[in-house]
Amino acid sequence: MTDLINLKTPMEEAASAQQPSQAVLIGQRLKVLRKERGLTIARLAAEAGMSAGLVSQIERGTANPSLNTLEKLREVLGANIWEFREVPKEPSEASFVRRAPNRPKVVVGANGFSKELLSPQNNESMRFMILTIPPGAQNNETLTGPGDKGGYVLEGEVLLSVGSEAAVLSPGDSFQFSSTEAHRVENHSGEIARVLWIISILDAHF
What we know:
By secondary structure, this protein is of the alpha+beta class.
């Protein structure tokens, strides 16, 4: 079953009942990114390896794309996946700051696994975020690419698998590995887990 992606900032979660659906917001942003690059729907779809009908549905907000679908689109657009949810920064804001209410949040699938972006906009060399992993949840669509990933367990207990190795990590434990390796984060405990997740980027795969 294909996981769905839901993108929110904390402020938007509090007022979600008064806002357009997340599918509509993603579609609006996709349309802007496509037009900025001078691409037609047909051209974007062909280069991303999907139907023009699907791209059109996403732009109209009638289809909620999976993380893998957004990954294919962002590769063609030369964007990172967070750009599907970013809002323009205030002109007076320092370039090295991201305010708490403006942190995009990616919720993948029905198990509540989420990623909340902490790094400022336009940082293409490093990205850091907080993973929130409910009991029994895991990331089913882990993207790989050139670079390194690392992190620090803030709360709870997680099972981190990298290649053929696996380790149970507790609060205070840290880790680092090549992001070209297949990897997965799981929570087999009965309590929520939170992990500071850091990506050193050679290609903006996430």
